[in-house]
Amino acid sequence: MTGYQTYQDFIQQNEDRDGIRFSWNVWPSSRLEATRLVVPLGSLFTPLKERPDLPPVQYDPVLCNRPTCRAILNPLCQVDYRAKLWVCNFCFQRNQFPPQYAAISEHHQPAELIPQFSTIEYTISRATCLPPIFLFVVDTCVDDEELTALKESLQMSLSLLPPNALIGLITFGKMVQVHELGCEGISKSYVFRGTKDLTAKQIQDMLGIGKFHQQQQPTNPQPPAPGQPVPAANKFLQPVHKCDMSLTDLLGELQRDPWPVSQGKRPLRSTGVAMSIAVGLLECTYPNAGARIMLFVGGACTQGPGMVVGDELKNTIRSHHDIDKDNCKHMKKAIKHYDGLANRAASNGHIIDIYSCALDQTGLHEMKSCTHLTGGHVVMGDSFNSSLFKQTFQRVFAKDSKGEFQMAFNGVLEVKTSRELKVSGAIGSCISMNTKSASVSDTELGIGGTCQWKFCGINPNTTVGIFFEVINQHNAPIPQGGRGCVQLIMQYQHSSGQKRVRVTTVARNWADATTNLHHIAAGFDQEAAAVLMARIACFRAESDDGADVLRWLDRMLIKLCQKFGEYSKDDPNSFRFAENFSLYPQFMFHLRRSQFLQVFNNSPDETSYYRDLLMREDLTQSLIMVQPILYAYSFNGPPEPVLLDTNSIQPDRILLMDTFFHIVIFHGETIAQWRKAGYQNSPEHENFRQLLQAPVNDAQEILQTRFPMPRYIDCDQGGSQARFLLSKVNPSITHNNMYGWGQTSYQTESGAPVLTDDVSLQVFMDHLKKLAVSSSA
Amino acid sequence: MNPQYSSVQPPQMSDQNVLCLQTASENVYNGINSQQIAGTPKSEYGLHPASKQTPFHNYSVPICYSQNGLTPQRQQQPLCSDFQQPKFTTAVPPGTQFHPATVSNKLTQHNEELHIEPAGPQYSPLTRYSTPHPTDSLQRSGVGESFSPGLPGPLKKLPAPSLSQQMLPGGRLPFPHTSSDHYGQPQRHYVSQTDSVSSYGPPSYSKIAQYPEHLNASVPSSASLPPLPHQFSNVGPPKVNQSMNSFSPNNQVNGPISGGPLPPVSGVQSPFPYTQSLQQPPREPQYPAVPQVQMGAPAISHQLRGMDPNHLPSSVQVIEADRKERSGTFFTSTKGKVPPLVTTDFTVKDDGNCSPRFVRSTIYSVPTTFEMLKQTAVPFAITISPFAKLKEGEQYPPVSNLGEMGPVRCIRCKAYMCSFMKFIDGGRRFHCAFCKGITEVPHEYINHLDHMGQRIDKFQRPELCLGSYEYLTTKDYCKNGVFPKPPVFIFMIDVSHNSIRNGMVKFLCDNMMQVLTSLPKEVGAPASVVKVGFVTYCNVVHFYNVKGNLVQPQMLVVPDVEETFVPLLDGFFVTVEESQSVINSLADQIPQMFMDNQDTETILGPPMQAGLDALKAAGCAGKIFIFHSVLPIAEAPGKLKNRDDQKLLGTDKEKTLLIPQSNFYNNLGQECVTAGCCVDLFLFPSAYIDIATIGEVCRLSGGQVHKYSYFQTEVDGRRFLEDLKHSVRKTVAFDVIMRVRTSTGIRPTDFYGHYYMSNTTDVELAAVDEDKAITVEIKYDDKLPEEDGTYIQVAVLYTSSGGQRRLRVHNLELGTCSQLAVMYKNCELDTIINYFSKQGLRMVMEQTPRYIKDYFINRSAQMLATYKKSCADYSSPSQFILPDCMKLLPLYVNCLIKSDALSGVFSYALFKKCKRKNYSFSFQHDLDPNSTDFPKTMRCSIGNIQQNGAYLLENGIHMFMWIGMAICPDWLKNVLGIEASDRINVDKISLPQLNTPLSLRIHDIIESIRKERQRCMRLMIVCQGDKLELIFRRYLMEDHGTDGSTSYVDFFCHLHKEIQKLLS
User: Fold this and answer.
1) Distance from CA of A221 to the nearest CA of B (A)
2) Cβ–Cβ of A190/B558 closer than 8 Å?
3) What is the ipTM of this complex?
4) How far B510 CA lies from chain A's nearest CA (Å)?
5) What is the pLDDT of residues B303-320, one digit of tens each?
6) What's the predicted TM-score (pTM) here?
7) Do the beta carbons of residue A173 and residue A298 sit within 8 Å?
8) Which of B538, B558, B596 to mutate to test the interface with A (most CBs of A within 10 A)?
9) How many CB atoms lie within 10 A of CB B183?
10) Which of B87, B867, B907, B931 has the fewest CB atoms within 10 Å, i.e. is most exposed?
């Protein structure tokens, strides 16, 4: 640790190596002190962070012998090379090396003992390789144009799949059709009524796949044991190489749902039953195998279980307002339905993706658990014909440098901790596996009560927030060794079908907060803390009232300021924050007004969508979501990041804002006029053309790496689309500034650059300082 | 044996027949046969008293009496009776079968009533011997029996020939004896009287009681002399014949064949002379003998008993006569004119009343009071076949379109404008013929009247000059006020293992296109607008999308059988033209796809429901064709249990098998009606399939059940295909509401047929086609005015196969009468029997077979008794008098009772449709190779069959070709392409198509017969002596059934007895 210049470097390097960032990098040595830190001790962990440099390890990990521990041999273990012994750094059990490690010596170490490989990945070669399974669930109640675009995308995707991948197709409208693949001369499908909730058993019986299921289940609760043959592909799921032609034709012949939709009605759409059948189908044919249910939906479910809205157009789909007023009769039932499905899918290791493309809401709010619990993608767009959808969908099948899918299946993350530490929960796209161990804390934060979580769908970006609790008593000495350890073990099915285990072992120093608070303060990672706090806030917002969450956030912020600020009592102007805390209030400011916590102007679907992504993206992306970044392009110099502030809006500037969900290119007034006049087309204004092009190029770069594709907005100052930018910037220029009026702008006047009731950062900060220094607080 | 046999029976029968006929003829056939009768019978009687007696037993007491007189003593000895029995049994095994206890009861009764019987059995022989003991009639009977033993050979022989001789001359001509006969008859009367007086009569077997045992039994009971006389007087004469019958078996046994030599016997019987006059000589008895012997014993025995069946009223004869007389054009304008028989080939010219093809009434002259009608027991009913097929050359009811105005109707009873309406007030108002109300004529419809009070446009408007016509309707007449869409046909194929295995699926699919080319079209339309859809099912339902623009058909499986639904609309119903290629490939695919289907448990309810839903969803009426092969036992709605229990058939519990086991199909049927969905079932069972239950759907929805047991493509394929094509092709009307309006005083009360009624007046039918008819029973409320006619208007609102909502109106005017005689003269037996059969079918569900049988017998007896009482009162009470119109009543009623549908031999037989024609008609065609005419039909009795002939028998459902042992080898070669009769392969059922004139001719004949029937009948080739012969025998309606049912002769006698009972 001493090798690092600053904590910044330390944090950065740790992240690069292990994919993990802690809110505190020096840990208080007692429970009491830990709670007084305000920001909980937590980490953002990216289990499958892309690490092309990892050595291929083709053997099994060495486990601690103690049955309650089973930690994996890691660089932090003490090793007695002569005795061929190693000491578990979690339980201090002395373990004999297995026979194949006989040749071990100080100079001849296995990779897992080399400190630089604190993260290492084992490939379990014994396990059977299962090809990935893709089950398309396609909504046919969409316009012909939409359907055509969707069909093209689906057909295209066939070429992206490995030939051995199994594929299936379910279409739905008023009815649900499960298509049999690979039949010749006639295309067959099984049709289900869209209004009848079928149990898994019924579905299996009706599809004629039930018996297989019953035989298999008792003997095979876990992934297929080695040597067991891969289950024969049934008629609904066929290898791509066998059926791509017929499936292409089948997709080509897909027709819009033929049932007539009368005036004033929505088409009858049986999303709920379709999902139920998809889940049931996979559940009994390929339990515990990596599978993706890909739901393409162009509208809200209007009948049967999972109904979001009735088919009468006069009944509008629920809004946040309705939810607050408890005025949406279908919601609770629908949520229950989808929750049930999500849990079933997740417990079988199946992923549910939702690709929702419609101008209105499609019920993501109800279906959020499907993607959230299974780690499936959620994509929200306006049209299947948009590049947003097309490219996003294409990117689902993105491959890494080795030509393998970046997606991974059916992961299980286990956390092991030193004795002084326990894990209190996780927040992310996962479900609890309800595994108790010595590392499990009694207090829960997020999904707690377990040391194992299931990540059905996981990709290199997937990041989970894991929270820890220090349980060392206040009067106890600083724990042995001076460092606390955490081991994170991720077992998953690689897209190639291999079973892999990635192990990350990290350690941090203990410090006595009463005496060495500054050490601890120095180890504060404000970015990680902000993201973790955002996650907690979102997690709470799911169940609590929005206002409560905001108040909680405020209280936490104020407490943090009080704890770590330097100030004289009751003198707001004396308030100072250390550098590694300085941005935190700003993050909180933007978080408060973000779409994650403010539902105003957002539909329930959007809110669910945004929160879902916040829960899974890595730190950098999450920060962008919380506080968008803004670049300015002008003739005055190279592009530069500027404050997310109304001040940054200048007539002769082009702004590029990235909010993760949107990419906005904002042309200042003058630039917009020039552009309108067509100067960029004349050769003598080549530089203007280049100026216009620069942000576009940068935007393209972002677009190409981002998943899901952000919405790309090109707008001019004063144009309607500019609202995307104006809603995000700090409203520092208000009526006040412009006209010399009072403090805050509660009046709306036409001249104001930003018409908002929100307070500006300045006001926020002033207020914060005042409260922080107040002796009465 | 032989001699007796042949000789005895035929003559006797004939005599009796003659008698009856004569009486009948009094009314009807006056002139015809009188001469013959007069001449022959007498002579015969004179010649063969004994023989006569036997025959008389059935009919006319006189004979018996005479016998009795001769043979009283014989009867006394019980021993004798015993003797006889053994003979019977031994000699004629079949005869033994008849003994049933039931019979015995009757017999005893009869005995009491009928004195004549005893004598009958004994016949000539008896008479001879019996003479000694005149005292007890009972004894006589016994004696008679005893005698027969004693004298078996010779005696019998003797009488027989004599009879035969007598018969020949008169037999044919029963009817002719009109008044003259009567006068001739007086003798009989005397005889009878004498009998009664003498009270020998006791021997009565009321029944034609065949069994010696019964006789014995009866004897004691009847022993009480006193009752006998009474009965005697009334019943006596006919019974004699019956007894004869009973006896005849003996005769048969003894001397089956050669009847010739017997003359002496006849001489023996003194009484005959009297009777002779009544009796008319039958044909020569001889020929039957030979074949009979060889044929199964049972049949023979029946025939031989008693009278010669050939001299009973013969359907062949009646039909032939009517055909000769009434062929040609039939004008409908005359009020109350009885139409020709349904068998007659006539052309109808509609000029005021509807064609009898559409509506037929049981009576064309309605008695003015209900009391009168009630007394006669003649039903007043009309049989309506609103879409009956017309003969070539007949005019379809013209369609008129009155535009927005719609049809003109009586404001009060809503009757439609017809030629019976009287215009008054210069044409501004009209007087309703039905309710007598007065209605303003709509402005657009007013026209001037001529000096006769007729509208001047009378002949421009069909409704003013025709009996049947159609209207295009306005929206008010449509369901939900929306004009209908063209109907759709759905083909639903069971693809479970059984259907695959028996080849049905493959066969059907191979011929699907052929079937589809015969979709019905509107008269004059270039192409059919009917759309088709396809479904297969085993334990799930498969729908097919065969939209024309698809490359290949799409199959949609609906695995949810609990709640079936229709998974698609677009592409399910297609026009054959547009989707021809897709349908073709579907037809190719289906057999392949299910080739290895191992599912044996199948469903039926769900596909039906789904089809119904499809129609509902599409908003059109239609027809569902279901091709099904096994009892639906899979877990699904409409699941059925196997409840087949052969033991129950024919018992009182039989009806439990005939009542649907669940009301699922019933409810479904009702739903079908409201949706205008007609279900046709084609069944290919190889085991019990419970038609009684699943057929409910068809029954209610106006569909039809076709059954092909043990289907084999080679054998039944063609038949099935023809039936299917017919079913697809025939004119059909959907979404039918029928309303019968009648003039005041009468009203329709009961409806028979396959329909559904949601209220009391409107008959609702999902569909009606040209083969379907509904019988409506009509009752009185008031006295009818004699001068005015009685009007009936049948209005049928329907959707045509072209998708037009139309109204078809049939009007019929019947005469009224205050004399029963007039009514009897204007009866229509075909319709009466139709009514009876439908009534019987309904009763099967509720009553025991025995009850039904008795009901028909009693009712017939009452009809005839009333006739006798009121119209032929002057006739002797012992005479059996039949009104001309009802000559065949006994025959038909007997056939009806014996028919499969009523006797409950098959529980499935219930699907009998409302046929206008009674299925009791059986024809035998003597196949004469060279003639070009249609072969002559023969009476349906084994007695007419010769060993060296080949015969064709059909009844609308079955068709048999019987080939005698002694058929000439050339014939075999030319027709079957084989060398000798013993090499006939019975399994090979179809006749080979040989290029010989004979073969061609036979095929022609078969084809033309099939064309006349609704179903393509399966041709079963029966070789003499082969197992199938038993079945064949069952359809020889005039003979004893193998199951103990009565022969025509027996029945005739029984009926006579009943009549006399009524009259006494």
Assistant:
1) 28
2) yes
3) 0.82
4) 17
5) 334 556 667 777 777 777
6) 0.73
7) no
8) B558
9) 13
10) B931
